[in-house]
Amino acid sequence: MPGLYGSIPSCITDLPNLHQLIILETSLSGSVPAFTNHPNLMTINLARNHLSDSIPSSLSTLPKLNYLDLSGNYLTGTIPPQLVHTSSPSLVLSSNNLTGELPKCYGWVDFSIIDVGNNQLSGDASFLFGKQKRAVNIVLANNAFEFDLSYVEFPDSLYGFDLSHNKIYGKVPDSLATAVGLWYPNLSFNKLCGELPQGGNMGRFSTAVFANNACLCGYPLPPCSTSAPAPV
Q: InterPro entries this protein is in (predicted)?
């Protein structure tokens, strides 16, 4: 609906029985509505509009919100805590101008999908991973996240992740080779170093997955030399 202009009508927030709000690819501008009294609202998809300002913290009061997609807008500020509450939610905030760090409480959320790529986020995001998590896809690409990957455990449910173009350091953990569901990782353009794990999934992955790091070596990259630098 590219011909739709103006702001999202405030009367939308007066619909307590609303279950889904989906407005995609319009020229709507202004702020994301401050939903409060919506006990049944499960899906908000306002992707690829011209929305600006910050993400309203009132979204954290929606008890059934399971899918939130605000990607492809001009949103600024930090990410509020507890935006989603239900089991295995999806949170998509990519391609905005968000800053700051991910709320630590997101480490307690068992996301199905979380995509915060193409923002200006920083700090630690390792708490999104864990052997017992049920995540399918995690996208942190094109930010300034900085954490040690060495002890991260990738869950078996994980189908893909994109950590490229950050400041992630350490070595690539053995769980990359053992997470049985993993097909599409991306660790390129970081500060990783050391020998890659071998066996398991590693035959699935091309050199592009590991390109432009500090000093990675081992299949599918060239072999490690005996004088290879130690991991940072």
A: Leu-rich_rpt, LRR_dom_sf, PGIP
Q: Note the pLDDT tens digit of each residue in 96-117.
A: 999 999 999 999 999 999 999 9
Pairing relation of β-strands 184-186 and 169-170?
unpaired
Q: How far apart are CA 116 and CA 124, in angstroms?
A: 13
Question: How is the chain split into domains, by residue range?
Answer: 10-217
Residues counted in the chain: 232
**100 φ/ψ sector (left φ>0, alpha ψ -120 to 50, else beta):** left
Residue 178 burial (CB count, 10 A): 17
Q: Does domain 10-217 have CATH number 3.40.50.300?
A: no
Provide the terminal-to-terminal Cα distance of the chain, rounded to the nearest Å. Answer: 49
Overall pTM surpassing 0.85 (yes/no): yes
